[in-house]
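I hope you will forgive my troubling you with a question about protein structure. The full record is reproduced below for your convenience:

——
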Amino acid sequence: MPRAAHSTTRWARSLLAVSLVALAPLVAAPGAVGHQAGDVPTNTRGERVETQGVGVNMEFVANLQYDDTGEAQGGSDIEFMKLGKKEYALAGTLSKGMQIIDITRPTAPKRVAVYDCDISQGDIQVWTNRGRVLASYTADGSVGEAGAASRCGRDLDLAADDAGTVIVDLTQPTRPQSVSFLPVAAGSHNMSIHPSGKYLYNSNSDLLTSGTEPFITIYDISAPAKPRFVQDFPIPFVPTSLGSESHDITFSADGTRAYSAALSQTLVLDTTDPANPEMIGQIIDPAVNVSHQADPVTLTGSDGVERTILVVTDERAGAAASLECPGGGLHLYDITGDLETAPVKIGAWFIPAFTVQDGATCTSHVLRIYERQQLMTISWYAQGVRVIDLSGLADAATDPLAGPLNLAFGDGAGMTEVGSYVMPDSDSWSFKTNKIKRNGSFYGYSNDLVRGFDVFRYDGKSIGDVKPLKPRDLRRQLELQVEGSSSAASLALLAPVALAGLLLHRVGARRRRTS
């Protein structure tokens, strides 16, 4: 049910429509260059990062630097894990390895280890397998001489021209161990782990210059130390935007669907058999310059009907330096039931920031949806970090205004910005949380290209009570996996004994009948 009614203003719609049409041709070209080279900082900082910014229902809590150079820190993706009473953030970087940070006390984050892997991108996902906590760590393009010389390169015997994804064992967070390497010649811009933990889908995000046969590489990782190539799953070639390759993939919780943001298009895949997916839906939207991420959310409207909305981020121009804000926004499609084969656009949402940029990037980037709490967190590069209320999305699908021209700025199209924080030197790549209290408050963690690791607190007052979000204890999950394996092994040992006993019983019975 929506928490509040939403509205839009005609002048804001007109302003954005004009700015997008006028500026898209200007920024699309440099985007190709920027994407091929990988994300680079576009904001500037002093020797020390700023500690005072502008916040709405949010406050700055702490910052952690990855080195003492006083230069851009190269933060990228961020993920989390809980082991027993300890909670950790796993922060990827463009060249400084995976930072393993103890966030048990969010006000005092402490780095406990660095997995030395000098590769560029550092997209991360976490899963468990047979008593181990594992994480993936990506190399977008070749690992280079530095990557080959770093620990992951030495452990896995990588050459400078290798590209793909590293699997790391984090069962002991202070002692990360290299497990294996999944080679992908086109590189690993992002990868996604199927909810079963048995398959990895690779997104290379290559540009038009890579060819006319885009694909998603699929690996079987059920045996993490010996990953097995399954196939290069072909996807359509759409010669618009920067290319047609998959940039990012999100699986549904049950693993039966995957949503691929593929630059010029967004795809819906049936992954009931994850080794052999089928494409069942495609979105080609001229209003989306670069389809960057596509995440579904299922909510119940005020009419009691459940609807599933696909939220697609537009990383306009591939995060090239911007001329204005708000840049690329969030595009919304109804994919309820049969609509997943022909998604219907219900609107687009943008942050309420209207500024001329001096080159620092302003566009939507990495988001995370918290479905039970009806919330989203998202990074917006130089426009910092944002918290968005999604409670009106289900109703937005049936609103008379729903459609491609339904543009909202901060409040509308079923979404309301309820928190934000912007530093003068912000360049946030990702912003997520692992825990939300019943009163709606939480500590959010930003991995920033310029600033490094930031902690913010959202006070929750603008939304009221929500269902609490608690992180899963992976240590308990590991114990259950080990117990399950032990039980299976015990049954395997008992089976021959039971069979022998049954045979002896039958022989004895036969003897009694013949005596």
Summary: Residues 474-514 form the longest helix (41 residues). The helical segments are 10-37, 144-149, 151-156, 393-396, 474-514.
